[in-house]
Amino acid sequence: MGHMTFWRKLIPTHYSDVLQARPTFLNLRPHMSALIQPPLVAPSARTHIPVYAGQLVPEGMLPKLKNYFEWLARERDFEKHGLISIISPVESGMDFKASYDEVVGYNGGKGSLRLYWNAAIKVDGSNFLDRYDLARIYNAQRFIVQDALVNDAPTVGTLRADSVALAAA
What is the pLDDT of residues 130-155, one digit of tens each? Predict the structure, then answer.
């Protein structure tokens, strides 16, 4: 589940969106970015999908949700200690959050073009040049953050509780 879906766009709306994609020789313009959204799908499913015949979510969705959470844990828990890492500020849902300033090498206080350059262009550009290879990105340690929102109790707790429930289903 990508951070952005490029709906029928050959040319992106913002030039920096190109840096968030993983193009290949055969697919120069992928249909979605290589980044993730904060993993809020489990609480969203609980809130927005009515209960069907005593089930929390329709039966067909359970395997998809389980696969997503397993993928997320496998691909983004780099240190295998139960915390998901993000590789770009935009993955948190709060792109230019002040607590990222030190991580991206910005100390200018108020937002500016330099903050945008450091947080978006340098981080996403480096990830793009690494072809969004997660092992290379992790080894480079440019922006590996275990954000509180991404790892908050309702989200991750729901993720783990649902994973256990899904495994039992």
Answer: 989 999 999 999 999 999 888 874 55
Q: Does a structural domain hold residue 3?
A: no
DSSP string, 114-162: HHHIIIIIIHHHHHHHTTT-HHHHHHHTSS-B--TTTT-HHHHHHHHHH
CA-to-CA distance for 2 and 139, rounded, in angstroms?
Answer: 22
The CATH code of the domain that includes 100 is 1.50.10.10
**Domain limits for position 47:** 15-168
Model confidence, pTM: 0.76
Tell the burial category of 167 from Cβ atoms under 10 Å away from its Cβ (0-12, 13-18, 19+). exposed
- Provide the domain count of the chain: 1
